[in-house]
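User: I've been trying to design a sequence by hand for this structure and keep getting stuck. Would you show me what you'd pick, starting by listing the structure so we're on the same page?

Assistant: Good idea, let's start from the same input. This is the structure you sent:
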């Protein structure tokens, strides 16, 4: 089975594009969503996160996301430590999920592939790109977050120019209709390769 990595900067439209692939029957695994679920469900993760962030990491047994975000915002080494706790669990969960899939190819949506040098985990990589100003506008509208916050996240991600050069496919998502057209073309190409 072909494994495709779907990546792109914040607000580029990864999830939107992933949903389009899913509408063609492609199984899509959204790593960030699974990570969030596991952070609430896994007792091991919970114990380790409380050891790292303190008792405020959970409130009423639910992950205290705003608190974690505020801690990470001031200390990026905490982000690496949190990832070291969560990523292996997501990896194991993904491998179990993969075994259950029956399709010519699957897509794993991951915000950070190139940033962590994880290209080797995929047969092909699709990057979704869009103009910075559009991405900022989208995230502000979606999350009610501030321009400064979005820009600070962007600063920790590689520029689109790097991703364009390193990807097997690039989806330009300034315009949704044009992006959907590209999804169809790429879907057909991958199906051909999978035969
Ligand atoms: P993140 O990295 O923050 O998870 P993402 O890359 O998965 O973001 P989406 O959540 O798919 O991006 O898109 C961000 C927002 O922009 C969503 O509200 C989505 O509906 C909207 N959006 C995506 N693509 C377009 C587009 N081409 N035109 C207008 N709005 C779009």
């Amino acid at each position: 089975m072909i494994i495709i990595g779907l990546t792109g900067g914040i607000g580029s439209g990864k999830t939107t594009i992933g949903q389009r692939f899913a509408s063609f029957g492609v199984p899509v695994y959204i790593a960030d969503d699974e990570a969030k679920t596991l952070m609430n469900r896994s007792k091991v993760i919970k114990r380790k996160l409380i050891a790292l962030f303190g008792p405020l990491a959970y409130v009423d047994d639910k992950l205290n996301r705003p608190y974690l975000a505020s801690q990470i915002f001031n200390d990026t080494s905490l982000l690496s430590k949190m990832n070291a706790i969560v990523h292996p669990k997501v990896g194991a969960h993904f491998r179990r999920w993969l075994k259950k899939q029956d399709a010519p190819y699957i897509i794993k949506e991951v915000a950070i592939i190139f940033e962590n040098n994880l290209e080797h985990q995929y047969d092909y990589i699709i990057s979704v790109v869009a103009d910075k100003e559009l991405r900022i506008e989208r995230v502000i509208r979606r999350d009610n977050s501030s321009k400064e916050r979005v820009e600070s996240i962007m600063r920790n991600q590689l520029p689109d120019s790097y991703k364009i050069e390193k990807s097997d496919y690039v989806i330009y998502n300034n315009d949704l209709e044009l992006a959907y057209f590209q999804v169809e073309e790429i879907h057909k190409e991958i199906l051909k390769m999978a035969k």
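That's my pick for every position. To get oriented when you compare it with your attempt: The mean pLDDT is 95. The radius of gyration is 17 Å.
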